[in-house]
Amino acid sequence: MRTSIRTQRFPESIIREMTRVALDVGAINLSQGYPDFPAPQAIKDAAARAIQDDWNQYSVTWGLKPLRDAIADHYRRRYEMDVNPDTDVVVCCGATECMIAAMLGVVNPGDEVVCFEPYYESYIPNCFITQSTPRFVSLRPAADGAWTFDPDELRRVFNAKTKAIIVNSPHNPTGKVFTRDELQLIAELCIAHDVIAITDEIYEFITYDGAQHTPIATLPGMAERTITISGMSKTFSVTGWRLGYAVAPADLMVGVRKAHDFMSVCAATPLQVAGIAMLTLGDDYYRQLREDYAQRREFALEMLREVGFKPVTPEGAYYIMADFSAISDEDDITFGLRMAQEIGVACVPGSPFFSRPERSRNIVRFAFCKKRETLEQARERLQRLKRR
Ligand code: PLP
């Protein structure tokens, strides 16, 4: 084998593979989570202007100073978090790079990292890279439809080797928004076991039915032990710009910044300039974003229910986990591939989100961050499931 032992353990990303399948067979792509509608004109103009104005060289490794100021200000205004732009912020190539930089910054080989399952697939390779062991806590849909976890299962997983817990809320793939009480329990365990919370809050502004996003860093005793991660991809519909940021107390941020420096040097400078424009958009922008996604969610839930899926209603983010056992007794991978190839709608089989395949056998995930026309076309094609 000429490839490293470490990368041999990486899974191929099934999410990105499904996008390739969708392109090959001309399926409507409800697999990977990127919008097919335009980004706001004002920020596209800001990026184009930045290139013309020659913001075309490396920026300071941890991000342009005015962008770090805007990020610190954003956390202060929205969450009353006290963030020093000079020492507590790093701008990376997406939340994805922030997450691996955070892990490299604080996790040692042999440490354990707690992770809720199902999980966003990049957390697991990040454990391989840092030679740490993921310890899973199950999220399950409760009787009222919301996903939840067993507090005792969470308590049991914390031990002397636990270094960090990944808290992704709003959560991909389930759409769960962790409640204040749930975060409080996580916080108590982190404090009791001297554990660092690494968060993924990339969907913080996409919530439904009044669900409230709470950064765990705002809970008592957590600011000093949390690396808070978010970014522009989802809030501003610019997933291809690769712009994300992390904030943490200076003593944690030191390691995160070093890891980032040697991975990517800096995020794209002209896009950082446009990032400043993004963070100064007013509340109306966020209200509209939420309203538009609420409409897409309703449409997508209805579209899935009418052909026999059993979707779990998400409280946040833009995905729906749906049980397909009333439609087919195939496994998730076979069904997912057939959905793309025969029905013409690509979704993601449940497997990449679970460590135990038996939990994902009847589950697929749909992304609904799409134009109305795209969702309407998908609805029409899904009728083919009824005719089989
Ligand atoms: N975190 C979660 C939970 C995601 O769902 C995604 C993208 O789908 C990302 C991170 C990637 O974010 P970014 O584009 O900022 O790297």
UniProtKB/TrEMBL annotation:
InterPro entries: Aminotransferase_I/II_large (IPR004839), Kynurenine-oxoglutarate_AT (IPR051326), NHTrfase_class1_PyrdxlP-BS (IPR004838), PyrdxlP-dep_Trfase (IPR015424), PyrdxlP-dep_Trfase_major (IPR015421), PyrdxlP-dep_Trfase_small (IPR015422). SUPFAM superfamilies: PLP-dependent transferases. Its EC number is 2.6.1.-. Its cofactor is pyridoxal 5'-phosphate. Residues 28-382 form the Aminotransferase class I/classII large domain. Keywords: Aminotransferase, Pyridoxal phosphate, Transferase. One of its GO terms (molecular function) is kynurenine-oxoglutarate transaminase activity. GO terms for cellular component: cytoplasm. PANTHER family: FI04487P. It comes from the Bacteria. The keyword Transferase applies. This is Aminotransferase. The keyword Magnesium does not apply. It is an enzyme of class 2 (transferase). Belongs to the class-I pyridoxal-phosphate-dependent aminotransferase family.
